Amino acid sequence: MKILIINGPNLNLLGKRQTEIYGELSFDDYIKSLNKNNIQISVFQSNIEGEIINCLHENNADGIIINAGGYTHTSVAIRDAISSIETPVVEVHISNIASRESFRHESLISPVAVGCIFGFGMKGYELALDYFEKSKH
Question: What is the span of the domain harbouring residue 36?
Fold first, then answer.
């Protein structure tokens, strides 16, 4: 099974930026710690909206995990890209977006995702991987 993880803006700074919210572990170190022998994981990160959209369009994965960062709340274009592909998408956020600033409470992506995982730290990615591993996707 092939799973594509897409991380949006500023997530390249995990482990360095706002560690009180996002923790001190880099994303690369977190991914290396996962032991998912039957899942081939590829990771794409971009701070550029159009690159994320191109990645969604060009994917050849069985499932996608997306943390669109700040684009979650602003990007109709990323929402439309998810709607235009057949690959199932799980939305993940490290923090609980509902407990943060009010402008973060609405996700434009949630309505077009098969599921959403918020607030469990980096563990959210593993929970999403577990979903794909156990589902028929």
Answer: 2-134
The separation between CA 69 and the C-alpha centre of its own chain, rounded to angstroms, equals 8
52-80 pLDDT, tens digit each: 999 999 999 999 999 999 999 999 999 99
Instruction: Please report, for the domain that includes residue 62, its CATH number.
Output: 3.40.50.9100
Burial class (CB in 10 A: 0-12, 13-18, 19+), 61: buried
List binding-site positions for substrate.
Answer: 67, 73, 80, 94-95, 104
Number of other residues whose CB lies within 10 A of the CB of residue 136: 5
Catalytic residue set? 22, 93
Query: What's the pTM?
Result: 0.89
Domain count, the chain: 1
